[in-house]
Amino acid sequence: MPVANRSDDQRPYDALRSSIAALAPWFHNIDLNGVATAPDHFLGNYPADKFARFAAIVPADLTGKSVLDIGCNAGFYSVEMKRRGAERVVGIDSDDRYLAQARLATDALGFTGVEFRNLSVYDVAALGETFDLVIFMGVLYHLRHPLLALDLIRAHVARDAMLFQTLQQGSPEIADVPEDHPFFEPGTYRQPAYFDAPGYPKMHFIERQFAGDWTNWWAPNAAGSQAMLRAAGFSVEAQADGDVYFCRVAPVPFGQHGPAAVYPAKGGTGS
Ligand SMILES: C[S@@+](CC[C@H](N)C(=O)[O-])C[C@H]1O[C@@H](n2cnc3c(N)ncnc32)[C@H](O)[C@@H]1O
């Protein structure tokens, strides 16, 4: 019996599989009309399974809204926001291969009104516009200057809401932090004990590598994430899955003393 040729209707899938393979490896497993981009992902069906655990804290209807997806990777969250009706989605990332993945994914799914650009979070001011929803998921701990990134987002692109996620380590407790910190425990020369409380806001500094990745620099505890968000001028409205926060823009604490973000000048001779 003759071996049947692959049918014509399989050819578009073959072409899509080759395009996916050409851009591998993928960090986002996205279902492109039946073809998965990373079916053997080490975290399982990622990030769809994670999204399912916090999707309820994101507005279900984004009709007419604009979204900025910072560190968009292959565009999983950009796609999900389009599915919720967002009119315009801009995804930025510092890695061209991920941006090519994101373009392939949105093209394959037929989404319009999505734009992907190579831009660092430190350069968001160059966008020259604000967005109804900023997504800043999975990027903070990769940065050497995490609070600066939050300050820049708050100053230049966040108009109303921000969906935020970070790697966290340490206690999930939230300690009651005093309004002001005395040098010593009252009546002693002892340092205040609360700095060592598990729920005191902390950022663990990772000098070497975390999970074999040298780009992981920081791991806040839950109190640290929330305190940093507040310090940058975001109020936390909801928390889900332990490390995901839905925030609104709020006044920047101590903002009356001047802008929070800094803009280091580049010297002419640096290498
Ligand atoms: C762990 S992935 C998170 C991807 C996606 N946001 C998510 O939550 O699934 C981190 C992403 O941030 C990007 N990234 C790292 N540093 C960045 C920077 N300075 N500006 C913009 N994107 C950055 C990486 O290229 C990568 O795509």
Q: Mind explaining what this structure looks like?
A:
This protein has 271 residues and is an alpha/beta fold. It has one domain (61-252): Vaccinia Virus protein VP39 (Rossmann fold, 3-Layer(aba) Sandwich). 23% of the residues lie in helices and 20% in strands. It is built from six helices and eleven strands. It has helices at residues 11-22, 48-54, 76-83, 96-109, 146-156, 222-231; strands at residues 31-32, 35-36, 66-70, 88-93, 114-118, 131-137, 158-165, 203-205, 218-220, 234-240, 244-249. Helix 3 links the parallel strand 3 and strand 4 (88-93). The longest helix is centred in the middle third of the chain and has 14 residues, at 96-109. It is elongated, with a radius of gyration of 22 Å. The model has no long low-confidence stretch (mean pLDDT 95). It binds S-adenosylmethionine.
Distance between the ends:
68 Å
Rounded mean pLDDT score: 95
| CATH first level | Alpha Beta
CATH architecture: 3-Layer(aba) Sandwich
| Share of β-strand residues | 15-25%
Short description:
This protein has 271 residues and is of the alpha/beta class. It has 6 helices and 11 strands. The protein has helices at residues 11-22, 48-54, 76-83, 96-109, 146-156, 222-231; strands at 31-32, 35-36, 66-70, 88-93, 114-118, 131-137, 158-165, 203-205, 218-220, 234-240, 244-249.
Write the layout of secondary structure elements.
Layout lengths: L10 H12 L8 E2 L2 E2 L11 H7 L11 E5 L5 H8 L4 E6 L2 H14 L4 E5 L12 E7 L8 H11 L1 E8 L37 E3 L12 E3 L1 H10 L2 E7 L3 E6 L22
Parallel strand pairs: 3-4, 3-6, 4-5, 6-7
Antiparallel strand pairs: 1-2, 7-11, 8-9, 10-11
The structure holds S-adenosylmethionine.
S-adenosylmethionine binds next to strand 4.
